[in-house]
Amino acid sequence: MTAIAGVHARQVLDSRGNPTVEVDVQLESGALGRAAVPSGASTGVHEALELRDGGSAWGGKGVTRAIANANGEIAEAVRGSDAGDQRALDELLIELDGTPNKGRLGANAILGVSLAAAKAAAADADVSLFRHLGGDEAHILPVPMLNVINGGAHAQNSIDLQEFMLVPAGAETFAEAMRVGAEVFHALKALLHERGFSTGVGDEGGFAPDFGSTEEAIEAVLEAAGRAGHRDRVAIALDPAATELYEDGRYRFEGREEDGEGMIGFWEELSGRFPIVSLEDGLAEDDWSTWRALTERLGGSLQLVGDDLFVTNAERLRRGITENVANAILIKVNQIGTLTETLDAMKLARESGYACVMSHRSGETEDTTIADLAVATNCGQLKTGAPSRSERVAKYNQLLRIEEELGDRAVYPGWDAFPRHRH
User: Fold this and answer.
1) Are 381 and 141 spatial neighbours (Cβ–Cβ below 8 Å)?
2) Is the pLDDT of residue 303 over 80?
């Protein structure tokens, strides 16, 4: 009864008003799964390829070709397949596309079908998605990384670094973590207003003030935490998206220019001054030798996350493990294009002592798959934006529901999610 009876894809809008793919998968039993595919702004060159139409309509960002592929070739190929056998389904989709980056049919079309099938199988079994994917072992809620100050490609402001995240690791439960995060977020809004900064928000729900430096942004978040009475309960995580700052072997930001050694020194000095628990993409996506040096210098005391570096790709992660590069991987399902490949990358990371951080994209929808996936895999960390904008809050609300469903079995790891950090 879990055989796929039909696939229907449609064009919907993401949180930036750009088209994206939504897919319904219906099973012979009548069970329905629906998934919407997110889209990134600062995308690594090694990511799976989302298929866009080009031309003038929607600024070239239409997805009618991807939808036609989902409704045509993909739907025909998967009809009759068992949605309960995720690996077999995803391998069929990969083979059908036949390219290394899913560029023929589109990673957006393929991922939509992959995720919708998983949701349909969960619906057929009448269980939550996190239980369907993780079974009885799924019980760890993630520590949220709330992107409260947006810069770089996520905001039109003076800040070159992309994300300044508030991490409520000192909470006892996920629900309490959200209260801490929301209270600091509102205190930060008041602080910015007092200082004459704009309190408009960027793509991921965080504020986008014209601060003069990285230090000023971090200090503002920590001051807001103090005003809210939570200074000792929060830490900072950074995602500078350094690939965006890199050109001809040099990193240019905030009026300065650094080589690789200079960047390592910058992060070392910053993490020595502030309670930073995680640094994501602190170097460019193909600056492997400097990444190795950064890991040797700071890997014992700081979580070093590869996003553009690894793009949720087991092969790139395997190289990182071999060369002792980074100690954590960011997980974005649309970087690789199927649920199975996502889970395989996470399994390799865990077996190699690398942490996993589940992540949204800057172009999001109301789809909450990643919230369930974070709990299903017990990864312990999640990035999905500020406690602002409904496409971000939808994921947090889903985690509140999951925490309630788990009851006494729910575990919030808190500071233990960052074992390298000496709180």
Assistant:
1) no
2) yes
Q: CB-hemisphere CA count at 13 Å for 200?
A: 9
Catalytic residue among 22, 47, 183, 204, which?
204
Share of the chain above pLDDT 70, in %: 97
Question: How far apart, in whole angstroms, are the C-alpha atoms of residue 180 and residue 161?
Answer: 24
Note whether 236 and 272 are within 8 A (CB).
no
* 332 catalytic residue (yes or no): yes
- Could you report the per-residue pLDDT of 257-297, keeping only the tens digit for each? 999 999 999 999 999 999 999 999 999 999 999 999 999 99
Is residue 95 among the annotated active site residues?
A: no
Written as six digits, the tokens of 393 are 């809050």
Hey, what long-range contacts does 198-203 have (CB within 8 A, 24 or more apart)? 201/150, 201/386, 201/388, 201/389, 202/150, 202/151, 202/154, 202/155, 202/157, 203/15, 203/16, 203/41, 203/150, 203/154, 203/155, 203/362, 203/363
Alpha helices in 276-325, H assignment, sequence order: 288-298, 314-322
Task: Report the distance separating Cα 226 and Cα 222, nearest Å.
Answer: 6
What's the predicted TM-score (pTM) here? 0.96
Label the pairing between strands 328-331 and 355-359: parallel
Return d(Cα 219, Cα 77) in angstroms, integer.
54
Strands (E), 290-412: 303-306, 328-331, 355-359, 381-383
Amino acid in position 150: N
Structure tokens at 185: 């977020």
Tens of pLDDT along 201-225?
988 999 999 898 899 999 999 999 9
Q: Distance between terminal CA atoms of the chain?
A: 51
Catalytic residue, from 332, 364, 383, 403: name it: 332
For residue 156, what pLDDT is reported? 58
For 252-256, the CB contacts below 8 A with 24+ separation are: 253/160, 253/161, 254/160, 254/212, 254/213, 254/214
Considering only residues 423 and 213, tell me which one the structure prediction assigns the higher pLDDT. 213
Place of tokens 């899913």: 102
Please work out, in degrees rounded to the nearest 5, the angle formed at the alpha carbon of residue 153 by the alpha carbons of 57 and 282.
140
